[in-house]
Amino acid sequence: DAVGVLCLLSVAAALDFKYHHAKELEAFLKEVHAAYPSLTHLHSIGRSVEGRDLWVLVLGKFPTHHKIGIPEFKYVANMHGDETVGREILLHLIDFLVTSYGHDPVVTRLLNNTRIHIMPTMNPDGFEATKVPDCYYTRGRYNKNGEDLNRNFPDAFENTNASIQPETRAVMNWIKSETFVLSANLHGGALVASYTFDNGNPVTGSLEGYSRSPDDDVFIHLAKTYSLNHASMYKGTGCDNRQTFPEGITNGYSWYQLEGGMQDYNYIWGQCFEITLELSCCKYPPEDQLEKFWRDNKVALIEYIKQVHLGVKGQVTDKNGNPIPNAIVEAEGRPHVCPYRTNEHGEYFLLLLPGTYVINATVPGYKSMLKTVEIPDNTGNFSALKHDFVFPEVSIRSRGVSCPKTPLYQELQWPSAAVKPTLHVLVLMTIMLVIFK
């Protein structure tokens, strides 16, 4: 209809390839929401030090709330205020998704089966403070309090004693309030997809210069999904002759160690797999390059979102179909130091590559249920394999438990694979004690 066409034109016309400051960015997000009210939900998850809103636009068939079986995905950009490419390409991603819905079959299926959260800027104060754009470094990297937000999260390996900033706290609360499954945070200053862990110790292989998570294979796949679909990242040439990244990916710790990073926090405390995307050699490039950055990243951004449908998902319920929250559901041989638990709807989502796995569902105080599953690659079908667990003899409401915020990897020493299960039991027993205290 004519009105619909006008809506499409007005949003598309409003977004050109230039930098959008706080007021323009807010105006654009509000315009998109007004033009597509049933496909989008706009909300602020908090405020920056200087009081700017931290806007998130949610896109999907059910944008306002979580729907059982539909995974939650997020992109976050501009947490370093002077790294600006991600901020702009996420606005163009929003524009592309809303204008393609109903016309492009892939985008339509993606939005019908995924709830996508987009935060164009986590550090609006830093962006506004960057008066003189620079390819290398400005004080706009930090928030208004002079803190680096990507060193500001709780760390699983050591005490950072960081004073948690308003922007960081807002993101932590956001992660707690949603069942995020997959995420990426967009940076600049290099051209590479970097994956967890960013910090490490001998348990995770730091002595070999690589910090390996229990899901290292999945992270490598996720990083490669982005780099191989990017116009040039996969070439691995980096930004100067000193750095090369084979296939355009790197383990975070191998590249350089950092404490209090957002991707490790997502994985350990948020049950969400996140990678860090470095999208431009120049942190704050001239505006006339923005269109090329969008073209270079467009396919990769979409292909990466599809990976939220990897693996297996389902519900844990009692025999009457009541959901059991806080049940532990993990693949055997992949214990997380904070065991992955079901949400309030009894749902779990496990990102796993195609293959055969034993999935272990545990309700504290009851016998575990084990199920061998053959996982296909379902990303093309926009739905992970579905498997539910029904506990026949239990009808309980297990209380919420949060993992301690203290460094979790300090006590763990895994000298051999044989000890790993026992240590996992120890971790579980510790958590059980916390629950029942």
From TrEMBL:
Family: Belongs to the peptidase M14 family.
SUPFAM superfamilies: Carboxypeptidase regulatory domain-like, Zn-dependent exopeptidases
PANTHER family per the UniProt record, alphabetical: CARBOXYPEPTIDASE M, PROTEASE M14 CARBOXYPEPTIDASE
Pfam family, one: CarboxypepD_reg
Domain Peptidase M14 intervals: 18-308
UniProt organism field: Trogon melanurus (Black-tailed trogon)
A GO MF term: metallocarboxypeptidase activity
InterPro entries: CarboxyPept-like_regulatory (IPR008969), CARBOXYPEPT_ZN_1 (IPR057246), CPM_N (IPR033842), Peptidase_M14 (IPR000834), Peptidase_M14_domain (IPR050753)
Active site: residue positions: 278 (proton donor/acceptor)
PROSITE patterns linked to this entry: CARBOXYPEPT_ZN_1, PEPTIDASE_M14
GO terms of biological process kind: peptide metabolic process; protein processing
Keyword annotations of the record: Carboxypeptidase, Glycoprotein, Hydrolase, Protease
Gene3D superfamilies, A to Z: Carboxypeptidase-like, regulatory domain, Zn peptidases
Gene this protein is translated from: Cpm
GO cellular component: extracellular space
Protein name as annotated: CBPM Carboxypeptidase
